[in-house]
Amino acid sequence: MTTIEKQADVPAPRSAEQAPLLEVRDLHVEFHTREGVAKAVNGVNYTVEPGETLAVLGESGSGKSVTAQAIMGILDMPPGRIPQGEVLFRGQDMLKMSNEERRKIRGRKIAMIFQDALSSLNPVLSVGYQLGEMFRVHQGASRKEAKAKAIELMDKVKIPAAKERVNDYPHQFSGGMRQRIMIAMALALEPDLIIADEPTTALDVTVQAQVMDLLAELQREYNMGLILITHDLGVVADVADKIAVMYAGRIVETAPVHELYKRPAHPYTRGLLDSIPRLDQKGQELYAIKGLPPNLLKIPSGCAFNPRCPKAQDICRTEIPKLAPVTERDGGELVGRGSACHFWKETIHG
Ligand SMILES: Nc1ncnc2c1ncn2[C@@H]1O[C@H](COP(=O)(O)OP(=O)(O)OP(=O)(O)O)[C@@H](O)[C@H]1O
Ligand code: SF4
Ligand SMILES: [Mg+2]
Predict the structure, then answer these.
(1) How far is the CA of 66 from the centre of ligand 1 (A)?
(2) pLDDT in tens, 164-175
């Protein structure tokens, strides 16, 4: 890695008690394909604390899911490879653990919710059986106890008439209810961290909001960390604490959620915000970021966003911008803010 690429803000090691719940450090993931090496994740750093929600945002192909898969240890390897990086769970690097050690963390300490409940649930087993299985396998519960726990969980995620529906099969539930069942599965063992990858994308808008509210409510109640992966800025405004915006496998902007909306410090984030439909602009043509995300086999030199960026200058084609702290005009600190743009000052302060 060149010095230009090196991230400036990799924090110093801390003891297990002081360590964040999850800390991803300089994570790289590549896929070795017949066409070449696709660099899907190129030096991602982030932390999540108990009770905190980090939204990871970016267009399709920006590396959001691959980062999550690397954290969970469910990456396809090969073709995937993690050439460098650390995934510290309470200070312990999960990438260095044995499969056995990792399995103990997965499900119990870190659980994942996927977009597509129908393909994650087994169609020939009742929902109650699948929920109960978590308790039978992990806690040695009897069939009766497991069923009672399954009903309790279905109540918890507000599935009406849980007692009557516990023996129903996945296809007998609506999309929104199935996604609640996925949340129940993730919650079963009371994990410390949930990674939700586009958990509401397949649902219609009103149901999306209900499921997202439920997830946020349960997260507060259990004081869990939550990584919420989405390409929809509209979804995260009410639930996230902070946002990491990804582009071509890098984090290009980090900020507390409301500050990002008010004053983006990266032209890509500005483009994403300008492309959200707004009620007060009905009838006007919606802005769209020009061009397409890059081919990961051939990421543009310098700033990967330069071919699409309205502010690009010569330096943008040669030097990779570091994720650097964003400050007020007078140099005053802006906590949690960073931008990987040579011209972040012009972007945020205009
Ligand atoms: N098993 C694989 N083999 C080869 N390339 C892969 C594999 N899995 C992912 N990729 C590539 O890694 C890149 C990042 O993919 P990723 O799934 O993380 O994107 P994403 O940000 O989650 O996008 P989306 O919003 O569409 O879910 C993509 O270009 C994808 O083609
Ligand atoms: S570094 Fe240059 S190309 Fe990249 S976002 Fe900033 S202005 Fe645009
Ligand atoms: Mg994805």
Answers:
(1) 6
(2) 999 999 999 998
